[in-house]
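Retro notes (design track)

What went well: tokenization of the new backbones is finally stable.
What didn't: we kept losing track of which sequence belonged to which structure.
Fix going forward: every design gets posted as structure first, then sequence, in one message. First example under the new rule, 162 residues:
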């Protein structure tokens, strides 16, 4: 199992965090390495700010507006996948907790972060807007898993190492 816990590009994210290269079918290893490299170059850790939270909140209010950018439309569309993307929700909640710790001068809060649904949507949307490369990477990994399973003749629930 290869873990990227110590790699600064993967420190605060669950995406690309664990890969078992022994389980990855040979036919997709190069593609997986390419996705990993691209994500490592594009992902830049950041914390939510008052401005970014306000932007996400306002975007939720005007989600049916004709003036939305492509990035905003994509982020709103991707919100419908929240149940499918638990790790991204976890990343968003942890990032928000870290921002709160920083804002209030607390070293760390060892608590489970539970947020009411409307606030969770704002926090998630803010996270996706600041880290659009995460959703792109998740989609690429999903397609690559399907390709790996199909080429190896595996069931859709079989492990392919990533």
């Amino acid at each position: 199992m290869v873990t990227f816990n110590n790699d600064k590009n993967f420190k605060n994210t669950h995406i690309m965090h664990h890969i078992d290269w022994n389980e990855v079918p040979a036919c997709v290893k190069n593609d997986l390495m390419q996705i990993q490299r691209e994500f490592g170059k594009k992902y830049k850790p950041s914390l939510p700010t008052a401005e970014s939270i306000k932007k996400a909140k306002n975007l939720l209010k005007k989600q049916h507006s004709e003036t939305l950018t492509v990035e905003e439309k994509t982020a709103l569309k991707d919100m419908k996948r929240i149940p499918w993307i638990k790790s991204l929700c976890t990343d968003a909640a942890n990032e928000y907790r870290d921002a709160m710790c920083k804002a209030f001068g607390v070293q760390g809060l060892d608590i489970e972060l539970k947020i009411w649904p409307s606030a969770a949507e704002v926090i998630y949307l803010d996270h996706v807007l600041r880290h659009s490369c995460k959703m792109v990477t998740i989609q690429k990994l999903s397609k690559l898993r399907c390709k790996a399973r199909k080429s190896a003749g595996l069931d859709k629930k079989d492990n392919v190492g990533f």
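Added context from the reviewer: The chain has a mean pLDDT of 83.
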